[in-house]
Amino acid sequence: MRRYSGDNKKPSVTKIIILAAAATILFATVLDYFNIGHLLIRGPKTIVQLVTDTGLKSTNGRVNILLLGIGGEGHDGPNLSDTMILASIDKSAKDAVLVSIPRDLWAPSISSKINAAYAFGQEKDQGGLELSKKTLSLLFGIPIHYAVRVDFSGFEKAVDLVGGLDTTVEIPFVDPQYPLEGKEDDLCGLKIETQDINGVQTEVVKTASGSAIILSQITDQENPFTCRYEALTFKQGPLHLDGKTALKFVRSRHGTNDEGSDFARSTRQQKVILAFRQKVISTSTLTNPTTIINLAKTFNRSIDTDIADDDIPLLVKLGQKIDPQTIRRVTLDAGRNTSVLDVGDPTNYNGQYVLDPKTDNWGDLADYVQGEIFKLEEEKVQD
């Protein structure tokens, strides 16, 4: 390891305005512009924090924040983390790194995919944020100081509240299998029967042609339940996204032109995050009290965080200093020559599709992540 050794509260209205932006780490300027006066009158302690930069949790000069996106109520697996990003920010704000974490990455400490950590924690007294932080910390050997969880319904509404987002599609793609909400278990007029196959009672799907497909062996390439999906098309060039389309753009997993990969998906997520940040800090948003209030209400219903009120002024100060153009992006994925992950042997993971280290050494994965976080600092030392 290079650098590291090994209570959730409902946000206040003041806190919500920053967390609407803090969900993407870089939105702290919103609170400074709109609410800094309110923060300052809280007392001498706040003023001392702003002046001296003391009190913000950090290790080896870096603040690490875990960002989680879940489907929320009405979605299949509502508490599974479909989006996971680790933000590591140098306290001088001269270096910020976003590490995108695939939901299929195996987490040995919970014997499951890492996207299940929040859901497991919610089922226990430990809490979803706490278990997510602990799981990631054990996996990468990195202390996680803060965590923010946003459900996608809140994100979708927030995008519409700011008038949509503008981005550019660099690689066009078609996704023929984007899941339709509420259709996850629809049989599409087909029947599931039990047949004796080699002496074993096996569930099969009878197709319209009369052929039978073993239910447990259905693949993306041969999936008879076509009514469960819609086809998405994103053409190359400028694109204006409303809330629903923005969500589809970042969640699509079966795109052509290699846009179904974790790397491509993470790239799209980061593009939308920055587009949302730009829209939130725009004059049209910040000078519209109705929009600000509605954003606060939206995120009040869809955010879970362990960021304390006393830490907000320091996060504001840190966020002010970050230059978005200097943010470094790291994506953990499989399939590329430079990927550090690979598809694991299903027999080692209860038959599941999972990602694990290409070297089969979890310590190598932790070293890689830590190396990327401290990359600039180590380059300076070598020079």
Automatic annotation (TrEMBL):
Transmembrane region(s): 12-34
All copies of domain Cell envelope-related transcriptional attenuator, residue ranges: 81-280
InterPro entries: LytR/CpsA/Psr_CW_biosynth (IPR050922), LytR_CpsA_psr (IPR004474)
Keywords: Membrane, Transmembrane, Transmembrane helix
Protein's UniProt keywords contain Iron-sulfur: no
PANTHER family: POLYISOPRENYL-TEICHOIC ACID--PEPTIDOGLYCAN TEICHOIC ACID TRANSFERASE TAGU
Protein family per UniProt: Belongs to the LytR/CpsA/Psr (LCP) family.
Protein name: Cell envelope-related transcriptional attenuator domain-containing protein
UniProt lineage: Bacteria, Candidatus Curtissiibacteriota
